[in-house]
Amino acid sequence: MHFLYPIGLFALAGIIVPLVIHLWNVKQGKTIKIGSIALLGESSSASSKSFKINDWLLFVLRCLLLMLLAFLLAQPYLKKTISKSSKTGWILVDKNNFPRVFKSHQKTIDSLLKNGYEIHDFNAGFSLLSLNDTVVNQIKPQNNLSYTTLLSAADQTVPAGAQVYLFADQRVNRFGNELPLVNYKLNWIPLNQSDTLSSWIATYAGKKYEAKSNPSGTVYQALNTSENTPVNITIHEGAGISDSKYIIAALKAIGSFTQRKIIINPPAGKATIGFWLSDETVSAAFKSSIAPDGALFQYEKGKILTTPSFIKIDGKQLKLSKRIASGNQAEKVWTDGFGDAILAKERIGNLSTFHFYSRFNPQWNELVWDPLFVKALMPIVILDKNPEDFGFENNPADQRIVSLKQKAVIEANKTVLATKTTQNKPLATIFWIAALLIFATERILSFRKKPQYVKN
Fold it and tell me: What transmembrane ranges does the database entry give (predicted)?
């Protein structure tokens, strides 16, 4: 027997209470009048004491009751070892695909069912299925959870040491950013895809592309090859600040990559986006130089914080040495290690305004030295509506599958698997029942005990 909270056993010290009560048995004496000495007057009250246990049964019952309560505080349990012969297995299959899967793999599924396997829906909740579900019925809505999420969730539900047979396709777009890590033995049986060719229209950096996808890959071909409208950008730099060179270098890289013509500080016309690199308040004239529905990227001023941290962009952390205290409640685009905004976005008037709580200066952070700098600025310059997914499309029609050389999951080592062959069986219910019976017995004996009197 083991205890979840052994410190609860200190309550066993309470046994001293019934011990003291039973040992310190004080009896009040009774005055007895005798005729020959009655004239001597009233005698003083007398009492007697004894240091012995008069009722051993009550004493034992009360001690046992206190011991059981102490054990309940410590939460006792037994470690139950699961033998290999008792391990069950799971069959995971999407309920929508179950009729088709059973038709193609009936022999395999029947064999697994005879060996004690259970069929579960490969969706949130992993509801139990039966062969009755092979009958075509109403199709349930498609679950948008990735395979990584589902397989990781199953790791908390699958019986210890069980094997899992998963009937599912291995399309790349069904996985998350990471492969799942599981503690059970997974046998993945890939399904043949009914549609192996698909196409759709995608937009990236202001251009339209036709995407053609098959199991081996996806190819994008530009549709509008004509010259796009130039992107006009105006930059204002305050006195003593020399950060514009980093912006200009990034803009040239963006123009070269996207094949978009970028004009910096155009002599005439409205700008698509304006960079205000100054500690001063943005002037009205600078705002008016930006076209309606354009963007304003401005340095924020305020208290300078020098606590070491990092800028979190696209899952990567870049060293951050100095930043401006941010109290803005706008949408956070880039954050620091404390979750505060380094770049925030909000709509002010007819402009999309970006508040930058740092500087494009290596003394403030390492952003300008990292290739991520160009990628992070690109959706701002191109004014993409979904900057978090900019250039990384996850289309439902994507037909690519995991390479045969790539494992679909990462299985934990054998040591981790071995630790799952034991389960904890709580004993609290047994102890509660025993405590209730002992308490009832103790009460019955206490009420039935009759006081003893001295007879004349």
Answer: 6-24, 56-78, 427-445
